[in-house]
Structures are given as C-alpha cells and as structure tokens.
Design brief:
This protein has 164 residues and is an alpha+beta fold. The protein folds into 2 domains: 8-70, 2-Layer Sandwich (Double Stranded RNA Binding Domain); 85-163, no CATH class. 47% of the residues lie in helices and 12% in strands. It has 5 helices and 3 strands; from the N terminus they run βββααααα. It has a 3-stranded antiparallel sheet with strand order 1-2-3, with helices on one face. A hairpin with a 2-residue loop joins β2 and β3.
Length: 164
C-alpha cells in the first residue's frame, strides 16, 4: 500500500527580505534548491508554495522520490551526539553548577539556540543572572549570605561572626 502524496501545505516554509534581490525570498526547507520571490512576505510564501506544488507534480510524473515533509516525520526525542571530550566536560560542569542534569542542561541550551533571537537574549540574560547568584552562593559573599537567609524549610543558616 503506497502512502499518499504529500500536499504542498504539509511542508515547512520560510520567507524573509533579501537585500541582494531587493525582494522577499520564499524557501521550503524540504526542497532546499527551490525559492521564489515576492513583493511581500505573503506573496513570497504563496509563490514558493506554488513552486513546491508544481515540483511535487513533476516528481510524481517522473516517478522520482518526493521529500517527506517534516510534519510527517516521527521523532523519538532521543538524540545521539558526538562532541569533543573537553566540550562534554564543560557541559557537565555547567550542568552541575546549575543544579540540573546534563540532559536538562543540553536540552535547555538547544532550545535557547532554536528560540527567536529576542527570546534567546532573554534566556541568556536569565542564565547569566542565575550563574552570578550561584557563584555568589558558592563564594559565601555578603550578597550570598543575604540570599541564603532562609532555606526551603524556613530555617536560617548560621553566618560567621564577622558577617552577622
């Protein structure tokens, strides 16, 4: 039993202004060799969708393979990744400093890298603030002593006499 031919609407599209072409450029992730221009984002997207639909028809007529849309692909959520040992060590240290598992740390870093730029900047700022607080807590500075005034049970931690 053959799977039905994907519709052009199932594919992943992007459109952005192209300064080199002085027009909006529409592209399809699954068909990287295809592109289309428009005077607006909407027009560029409409044009690339039309080009993809025509390409699907041609591939089908020629009995060629039609790229599978990302929307149809199954993802397990598991990823095997090879990284240099030094990078692995640094990631493990960062995860430990943040009090999270290596998996949680790497997932967070990947997600922030995939986030829109404004969100990525906010996440980086929050990550930096958390890191500074963690460093202050580990160093036992007066700021850290203020932050440490109460733990989750509400008990106060003891402070050295010179900082009381």
């Amino acid at each position: 039993m053959s799977e039905r031919t994907p519709a052009e609407s199932e594919y992943t599209y992007r459109a952005a202004w192209s300064p080199e072409d002085a027009a909006y450029l529409g592209q399809c992730v699954e068909f990287p060799a295809l592109s289309a221009f428009g005077d607006s984002l909407e027009e560029a997207l409409t044009e690339i969708r039309s080009v993809v639909a025509e390409s699907i028809d041609i591939l089908k007529e020629d009995s060629e393979a039609i790229p599978e849309p990302f929307s149809r692909r199954n993802y397990s959520g598991r990823l095997s990744l090879r990284i240099p040992p030094a990078t692995h060590r640094l990631a493990a240290i960062e995860a430990a400093e943040q009090g999270v598992s290596l998996n949680q740390y790497l997932t967070s870093r990947i997600e922030s890298g995939l986030a829109p730029p404004a969100l990525a900047r906010k996440l980086a700022s929050l990550r930096h603030a958390i890191h500074e607080i963690t460093c202050a807590l580990n160093a036992g500075t007066p700021t850290a002593m203020y932050i440490r005034e109460g733990n989750e049970t509400g008990a106060r931690e003891s402070q050295p006499d010179d900082q009381a």
